[in-house]
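Here comes a specimen:
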Amino acid sequence: MRQLIYDHFTQHPNMAMWLNRQVMIALTTMMLMAEALSYDTALMEGFDDQRVKEAIAAPDRMEVICLLAIGHREGDDKRFGGRFPPGRLVFAERFGEPFFA
């Protein structure tokens, strides 16, 4: 079984995409749980992954996909600032048909 798993992942046609999706699924669950426990979360991209690996002493064979900050924010927060209304982004049955009337 171990060999089958190894063979599957070493021959995967797009391992980077698969890995990214799995990490995002895990992070989504972590964010939901943290917010259920009254913590604030912020997913971060656009960082220097090499410097992050150096800061946490991660081996070169590892990849940093993204960073997730979990904590309590300070000060007021602009609730849903700059977001599109759901009717512009959430569709029912067909693209362009708003889910919300």
Remarks:
- The helical segments are 2-10, 15-36, 49-56, 86-89.
